[in-house]
């Protein structure tokens, strides 16, 4: 049976992009294999973050996982920091990734370019080392991620080759899995940039008031012309809304196009807004019920116990291979 693993960093308010690219996608995996989904709280420390913000966000993400339909009976939910084997494995693996290749990571370049070059944290630079440890610690075969994270899975694959060449078949080769529709949801106010946690106008946040969500979608930037067709280059706004619609409905882009063949922009936007509001409305109701109960703590207690057990077995295997045991 396939092992599936993924995580989200608790660094800010999650968006509709995270929902489509990660949360909703994870749920579709839990029936197809043994699934491990965690909160990458150690990774959150790679950029400055307030302790209280980190704490609240971490708890929120677990509630989001549950509200999105992840079932703790089917998948193991945990916090990265509470399974100390992640840190232990990362310390070993750091010796098999090279500074040259880490220096070429797009995410590192983006996040560090405007920083004082003498004050870039080692953790930010070594981000992919810890991420490799996250993946390899569970012998994961499949890693569902958004497009922006595939480079980190690629470097993990390079590490596995290098490590196994030296020590034999110790680590399992993982593979990134990007969802077909919705791998990159764009900002509603500027559809040429990714919807990220930092643009209040163009982002739909998962806990936004439903009226605000509707308004953001109705005022999304669209393109000239009147046809509702997918054309990334010439119609990025309409293409983005089509993607959101298709991803939420779980249909193909061409099926979505067919539904709006005679529609006008306004009607189309209203249909997208109705769909997003219905989906996030139900999601929010589940979230508020969960966040006000002890469910998060209960789920983490059970999940972390199980995660530690599996992680310890793999860590032991690696420790033996390199000669620590
Ligand atoms: P992050 O917000 O960077 O921690 O990302 C958490 C997960 O959501 C990762 O798997 C990302 O690839 C995914 N993700 C983030 N933003 C988007 C977006 N705009 N569209 C699709 N997926 C996204
Ligand atoms: N880096 C991922 C992100 O920003 C989060 C993450 C950390 C992750 N470790 C992982 C994702 C391991 C998949 C597998 O979204």
Topology pattern, helix = H, strand = E:
EHEHHEHHHHHEHEHHHHH
CATH superfamily of the largest domain: HUPs
- Poorly predicted sequence stretches spanning 5 or more consecutive residues: none
Report the helical percentage. 40-55%
CATH topology of the largest domain, what is it called? Rossmann fold
- Assign the CATH architecture of the largest domain: 3-Layer(aba) Sandwich
Largest sheet geometry: 3 strands, parallel
Chain-averaged pLDDT? 95
The top-level CATH class of the largest domain is: Alpha Beta
- Structural category: mainly alpha
For the biggest β-sheet, the strand order reads 1-2-3
Number of domains: 2
Number of strands: 5
Proportion of strand residues? 5-15%
End-to-end separation in angstroms reads 29 Å
Q: Write down the overall geometry.
A: globular
Annotation field: number of helices: 14
Identify the bound ligands. adenosine monophosphate, tryptophan
Radius of gyration: 21 Å
Multimeric organization: single chain
What's a quick, concise take on this entry?
This protein is mainly α and 325 residues long.
Describe the structure.
The protein is mainly alpha-helical. It folds into two domains: 3-182 and 294-322, HUPs (Rossmann fold, 3-Layer(aba) Sandwich); 210-289, Tyrosyl-Transfer RNA Synthetase (Orthogonal Bundle), CATH 1.10.240.10. It has 14 helices and five strands. The protein has helices at residues 16-29, 41-44, 51-67, 85-93, 99-103, 106-112, 122-125, 127-136, 150-167, 210-218, 236-249, 253-259, 265-291, 295-322; strands at residues 3-8, 34-39, 75-79, 142-144, 175-177. The strands form two sheets. A three-stranded parallel sheet has the order 1-2-3. A two-stranded parallel sheet has the order 4-5. β4 (142-144), α9 and β5 form a beta-alpha-beta unit. The longest helix is centred in the last third of the chain and has 28 residues, at 295-322. The chain is globular. It starts with a strand and ends with a helix. The model has no long low-confidence stretch (mean pLDDT 95). The structure holds adenosine monophosphate and tryptophan. Tryptophan (TRP) binds next to β1 and α8.
